[in-house]
Amino acid sequence: MSRSPETIIENGLAIRNVCKHYEDFAALEDVSLHVAPGEFFTLLGPSGCGKTTLLRIIAGLELADSGQIFSGGKDITRLPAIKRQVNTVFQSYALFPHLTVWENVAFGLRSRKFPAGEIKRRVERRLEMLDLGALAGRQPHQLSGGQKQRVALARALVNEPDVLLLDEPMSALDARLRAQVQEDLRRLQRKLGRTFILVTHDQAEALVCSDRMAVMRDGQIVQTGDPEAVYDYPKNRFVAEFLGVANLIPCTRVPGGVQTAFGFLALEQEVPWEKGTVAIRPEWIRVGEHPPERNGVRVRVTDIVYRGTSFELWVEPGPLRVRTSSYRRINPGREIWLELAPEELQVLEDDTN
Ligand code: ATP
Which of 239, 258, 280 is the last residue of a domain? Predict the structure, then answer.
């Protein structure tokens, strides 16, 4: 289905040319993006890049200096937070410490004067969905981090918002629990079919959870796409480095390809710059005993790291990471051939500014 700009504005959350300054500092510079209804969208980027500021503007907790926000075709740029069909789960969870789990979840409906029967029905449904039924009578200090996180989610979801905003909601959890909650969150979002917008600086979290993601840097969106596309085809060096996905090889343009520390490498693509970077994923480098036809590099294996489903080789000259499943005849000290095939080499946009 093709989507014209008009249908995009009609059908989802659209952010158009949003700018936000704190005195002289530009926290957001001309940010535009579209989130489709029912989509799990992630804002990913390093600390201070403007993710939370953008989330707070969507929530109505902060006003943009310029630009517009549309939700379902309506301009909500100046609509107060309370009137938006949007709820936020904060990093700190912000639970009321003296209220029980049940009362925390019911709070929003009570203050909006919902009838008692409706409150009971909705709260019980959400507690059950998030596996909190047995904890309904506890207070926040009697809960683990993961349980508090689920209460915060239940409290936001009980209001049945069109859009749920999640500001690093998993940062307080340990690594194992975080992996579990990421999957739970993804499943929950699919089941509910609501729009979730997640803020995180954790690339693995973004890849697990998102239908689509935007990578941000210095108040701007650098690349938007589904996780596979961003992971496989980082647009520039910043994205490739931030996602930690590729070997980045400095190079100079020469006829037919580039000159690198590994010698001449033929490329399929045109190189638009004199000096720049080409990238190759560790698992896309082929390992062999004989020189390949094109782009062969002779290296010595210095170390082998077991990664569960594959092995990572460290080689000299380097740095070059190689991931392979066929390690058996390779020992440290051994010389091997690597093929950096032209079709696997990506020319990265220059972002050295
Ligand atoms: P983190 O991952 O660390 O939470 P972030 O990407 O969410 O970072 P923001 O919180 O959006 O970043 O902040 C973006 C920039 O704006 C930061 O440099 C921050 O210092 C600045 N900033 C945010 N709020 C204010 C404020 N109220 N006054 C001045 N500067 C601010």
Answer: 239
Q: In the prediction, which pLDDT does 185 show?
A: 86
Q: What is the pLDDT of residue 310?
A: 82
28 Cα to the center of ligand 1, angstroms: 10
Task: Read off the tokens for 325.
Answer: 């499943």
Note whether residue 95 is domain-resident: yes
Q: Is the pLDDT of residue 9 over 60?
A: no
- Tell whether pTM > 0.90: no
Please tell me the total count of domains within the chain.
2
**One domain for residues 42 and 187:** yes
| Ligand 1 centre distance from Cα of residue 52 (Å) | 7
Spatial CB neighbours of 215, under 8 Å, sequence gap ≥ 6: 44, 45, 221, 222, 223, 224, 230, 238, 239, 242, 243
Look up the ipTM and state it: 0.92
Which atom of ligand 1 is closest in space to residue 23's alpha carbon? 29
178 near 120, Cβ under 8 Å? no
Among 52, 88, 90, 218, the mutation site with the greatest number of ligand 1 atoms within 8 A of its Cβ is 52
d(CA 12, CA 320): 43
Residues 251, 167, single domain; the answer is no
Percentage of the chain lying above the pLDDT 70 cut = 95
Instruction: Give residues (CB < 6 A) around ligand 1.
Output: 22, 25, 27, 45, 47-53, 201
Average pLDDT of the chain is 89
CATH number at residue 338: 2.40.50.100
55 CA closest ligand 1 atom index:
11
Domain hosting 307: range is 246-347
